[in-house]
Specification:
By secondary structure, the chain is α+β, with helices and mostly antiparallel strands. It has one domain. Helices cover 25% and strands 33% of the residues. It has 1 helix and 5 strands. Strands 3-4-5 form a 3-stranded antiparallel sheet, with no helix packed on it. A hairpin with a 5-residue loop joins strand 1 and strand 2. It is elongated, with a radius of gyration of 15 Å. InterPro entries: SwrD-like.
Length: 69
């Protein structure tokens, strides 16, 4: 999950696997796969960076598979 902030200052977490699109219009609008939209304070680049960091954390925890076994 990644942290985001609404325009009213409410902090919450969103599952990045549910994000369909991120737009800057000029506010950052996150569209989910079910077509719901969320407007957040963070710039699109910040949201993308948080998604990348989240995925890196997840993939670091995946055990390495030894193909020689």
């Amino acid at each position: 999950m990644i942290a985001v902030t609404t325009l009213h200052g409410k902090n919450f977490y969103i599952n990045p696997d549910l994000i369909y699109r991120i737009e800057e219009t000029p506010d950052t609008t996150i569209t989910l796969i079910d077509s719901k939209t969320i407007v957040v304070k963070e710039a699109p680049e910040v949201v993308v960076h948080r998604i990348i960091s989240y995925r890196q954390t997840i993939y670091r925890q995946v055990p390495q598979i030894n193909k020689n076994q």
